[in-house]
């Protein structure tokens, strides 16, 4: 077997990417409803798309985050686990008939969900319910075979598991 100068025992899962139709609506959802922080973004003028990277920050990182330079934010983004990348292809927000295959309906069934860990599933679900019709519920707490996990959907229909274990 060929040897390589890399150690897979220290690899970490960094991020996953989903495409979004309207970044304003999606950023509102992930930041103000789910409580994530936009930690880095980058526009690609030639190819007409933008990447938005969001994550949950601990108190220490949150306290110093706004003082970081753009290069420091970029480095931080790609060296930490648990990042969600939203990719927006410019112009999709202006097309009323446009939607992405989110994996949870035909055509394109296949992608399952992302998940967030919360401190208290029951209270988190009550908080989410307070947002009214801004939240879609493919599966409420207590439904289905896995009763202690709720599934909500983001504005593009991507499913998000919510649980405290």
Automatic annotation (TrEMBL):
Cofactor notes: Binds 1 zinc ion per subunit. In the homodimer, two zinc ions are bound between subunits.
Keywords associated with the record: Lyase, Metal-binding, Zinc
UniProt xrefs under CDD domains: GlxI_Zn
Alphabetical list of PROSITE patterns matching this protein: GLYOXALASE_I_1, VOC
Boundaries of every VOC domain copy: 12-165
Gene3D superfamilies: 2,3-Dihydroxybiphenyl 1,2-Dioxygenase, domain 1 (3.10.180.10)
InterPro entries: Glyas_Bleomycin-R_OHBP_Dase, Glyas_Fos-R_dOase_dom, Glyoxalase_1, Glyoxalase_1_CS, VOC_core
Cofactor(s) required, per the database record: Zn(2+)
One protein family per Pfam: Glyoxalase
E.C. no: 4.4.1.5
Pathway assigned to this chain's UniProt record: Secondary metabolite metabolism; methylglyoxal degradation; (R)-lactate from methylglyoxal: step 1/2
Family matches, as NCBIfam families: glyox_I
Family: Belongs to the glyoxalase I family.
The name this protein goes by in its record: lactoylglutathione lyase
